[in-house]
């Protein structure tokens, strides 16, 4: 279940004399793990863990130790493990390892490591981040799940390495001073451009999804992928493909349901969330609880846009009635959202998304009153082709990120010494070079393989990170069946001409049609809701104006103030809507600037 982990490996210091620092690092994870925690400290290795719940019979205590008896001193032969998340194939792993059914998740992971070493991660199905210190050869292993659903950050330095579930675990160590990486201002202002492993904190990296890092005194951190998408010919007919998608999604949902107790599900009334919830409702022995969010200002201010043509609540209610779930609609007010934003910043430790984070935070807080486990349909858009831009030839043909659009970008207003001409194009070229090509594939199918891969990079990481951070802060474990890597691999090789032959996500609709109400099947794509409120937009403009012009603003010197002020005046006059992707309010362009400023000030991040 949700929690937080930290660690400190140092081959030159005696960490037993710095146990107070280790405890301070661990205590920074209290929000993710308020029910208690523990540390394990030896001369050169220290690991800590905070837990969200009291361990059940199926969950072991952490840090977990296994004494192998190898080494001149007892600690030299000890293997120590901390992890965050959930492993969904524990039963199969127990059988393969010859362990009894009562073996805990920690028992399984330790025995899998002792048998398979670092290769254990490729045998796991789940959402996880883990650290293993092997005292036998003084080797650290850091690993994240296939899609990067659980976070894990690290900071290497001469002679050692710090790591934690969130950056504040690293910041709590006096060896680290938070400093903005000025060369990465582009990703601080447009997080969808982030490449795997990057953060705006100088010297802090994130373990890449589907990667293992080994750290030793001799070689430092060495990263390797344990899983990658592979491209191969697809031989199933459309009917066979839809049937196989249904099977894989059914198995993913079944494997992610809690063994006992209540279960919730996010429900927007769209195809993705309704598919997951409908399968769960059939599989559970009791009623499923479903939830959606709306805003009290929708009646007065909601205006349809390409990405959000309608509000979720009526469709969610119809879907809930169709599947027989107990449904709750949370109505959020503007004061609710503003009051929650400081907590969302704490949940992230990095620049956030303002009201986009806050509405999800409030929804998860309401869900947590009823359950500790919930399902979500997140990521189906990225895998099955659910965004309008994917069906616009003029965007797909462009030699750049098709989701960027033509509107202004905050990075365009940086001072010359911070503006990195060609950075966006270099990132685009790097990702294109990573695309697993299918020999002989040409035309639209080949281009759409590239485009979908681009969307499965930074844009997907943004939505997955938001869901994890906001849910973990509430102690709610949100599980994402569409992110089962076996389903992802299968759908990856379905040609675009079959995947969306009938429009957005037509393959998924075909696979799930018998479980979905007509209102869901015929509904236009509608993205996760955000509040439309002129008062909020004007507040963003005022805050951004202060950031650009106030002498005490830490970011002021980074921007070309006259040009950015002109932009702010246009936004305030609502003159830019037509230029932004999906018809979004131009004021939303300022969220990253406002949140970056708040992060720099609250975390005392140096910008020089």
TrEMBL record:
The record's section on Gene3D superfamilies has:
Glutamine Phosphoribosylpyrophosphate, subunit 1, domain 1 (3.60.20.10), HUPs (3.40.50.620)
Give the family, as the similarity comment puts it: Belongs to the asparagine synthetase family.
Q: Does the keyword NADP apply?
A: no
Listed under catalytic activity are: L-aspartate + L-glutamine + ATP + H2O = L-asparagine + L-glutamate + AMP + diphosphate + H(+)
User: Which pathway does the protein contribute to?
Assistant: Amino-acid biosynthesis; L-asparagine biosynthesis; L-asparagine from L-aspartate (L-Gln route): step 1/1
Instruction: Please give one Gene Ontology molecular function term for this protein.
Output: asparagine synthase (glutamine-hydrolyzing) activity
Tell me where in this chain the Glutamine amidotransferase type-2 domain is found.
3-218
Q: Which EC number(s) does UniProt give?
A: 6.3.5.4
Q: Which PANTHER family match?
A: ASPARAGINE SYNTHETASE (PTHR43284:SF1), ASPARAGINE SYNTHETASE (GLUTAMINE-HYDROLYZING) (PTHR43284)
Tell me the classification of the organism that encodes this protein.
Bacteria, Bacillati, Actinomycetota, Actinomycetes, Streptosporangiales
Q: Which UniProt keywords apply?
A: Amino-acid biosynthesis, Asparagine biosynthesis, ATP-binding, Glutamine amidotransferase, Ligase, Nucleotide-binding
Instruction: Give the protein name, as stated in the record.
Output: asparagine synthase (glutamine-hydrolyzing)
Q: Which domain of life does the protein's organism represent? A: Bacteria
């Amino acid at each position: 279940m949700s929690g937080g982990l930290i660690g400190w490996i140092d081959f030159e210091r005696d960490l037993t004399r710095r146990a107070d620092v280790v405890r301070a690092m661990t205590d920074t994870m209290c929000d993710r793990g308020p029910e208690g925690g523990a540390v394990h400290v030896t001369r050169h290795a220290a690991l800590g863990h905070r837990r969200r719940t009291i361990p059940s019979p199926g969950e072991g205590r952490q840090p977990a130790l296994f004494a192998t008896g190898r080494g001149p001193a007892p600690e030299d032969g000890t293997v120590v493990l901390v992890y965050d998340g959930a492993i969904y194939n524990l039963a199969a792993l127990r059988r393969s390892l010859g362990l009894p059914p009562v073996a805990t998740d920690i028992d399984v992971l330790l025995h899998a490591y002792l048998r398979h070493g670092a290769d254990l991660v490729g045998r796991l199905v789940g959402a996880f981040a883990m650290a293993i210190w092997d005292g036998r050869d003084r080797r650290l292993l850091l690993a994240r799940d296939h899609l990067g659903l659980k976070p894990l950050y690290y900071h290497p330095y001469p002679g050692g390495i710090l790591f934690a579930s969130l950056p504040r675990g690293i910041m709590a160590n006096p060896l680290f001073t938070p400093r903005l990486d000025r060369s990465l201002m582009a990703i601080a202002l447009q997080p969808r451009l982030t490449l795997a492993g990057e953060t705006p904190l100088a010297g802090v990296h994130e373990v890449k999804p589907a990667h293992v890092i080994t750290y030793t005194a001799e070689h430092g951190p060495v990263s390797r992928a344990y899983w990658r998408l592979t491209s191969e010919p697809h031989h199933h007919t459309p009917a066979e493909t839809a049937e196989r998608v249904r099977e894989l999604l059914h198995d993913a949902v079944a494997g992610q349901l809690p063994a006992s107790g209540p279960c919730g599900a996010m429900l927007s009334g769209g195809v993705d969330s309704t598919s997951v919830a409908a399968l769960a409702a059939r599989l559970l022995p009791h009623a499923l609880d479903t939830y959606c969010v709306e805003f009290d200002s929708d009646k007065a201010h909601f205006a349809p846009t390409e990405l959000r043509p309608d509000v979720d609540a009526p469709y969610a209610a119809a879907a809930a009635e169709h599947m027989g779930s107990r449904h709750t609609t949370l109505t959020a007010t503007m004061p609710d959202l503003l009051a929650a934003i400081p907590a969302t910043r704490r949940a992230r430790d990095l620049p956030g998304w303002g009201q986009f984070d806050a509405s999800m935070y409030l929804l998860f807080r309401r869900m947590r009153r009823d359950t500790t486990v919930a399902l979500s349909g997140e990521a189906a858009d990225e895998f099955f082709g659910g965004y309008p831009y994917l069906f616009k030839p003029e965007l797909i043909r462009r030699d750049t990120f098709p989701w960027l659009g033509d509107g202004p970008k905050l990075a365009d207003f940086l001072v010359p010494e911070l503006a990195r001409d060609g950075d966006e194009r270099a990132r685009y070229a790097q990702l294109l070079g990573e695309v697993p090509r299918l020999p002989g594939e040409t035309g639209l199918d080949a281009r759409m393989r590239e485009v979908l891969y681009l969307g499965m990079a930074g844009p997907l990481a943004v939505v997955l990170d938001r869901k994890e951070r906001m849910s973990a802060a509430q102690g709610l474990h949100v599980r994402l069946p569409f992110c089962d890597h076996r389903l992802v691999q299968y759908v990856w090789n379905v040609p675009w001409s079959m995947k969306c032959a009938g429009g957005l996500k037509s393959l998924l609709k075909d696979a799930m049609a018998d479980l979905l109400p007509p209102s869901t099947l015929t509904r236009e794509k509608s993205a996760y809701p955000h509040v439309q409120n002129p008062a909020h937009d004007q507040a963003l403009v005022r805050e951004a104006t202060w950031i650009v012009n106030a002498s005490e603003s830490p970011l002021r010197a980074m921007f070309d103030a006259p040009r950015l002020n002109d932009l702010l005046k246009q936004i305030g006059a609502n003159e830019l809507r037509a230029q932004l992707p999906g018809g979004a309010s131009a004021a939303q362009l300022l969220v990253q600037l406002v949140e970056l400023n708040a992060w720099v000030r609250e975390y005392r991040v140096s910008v020089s």
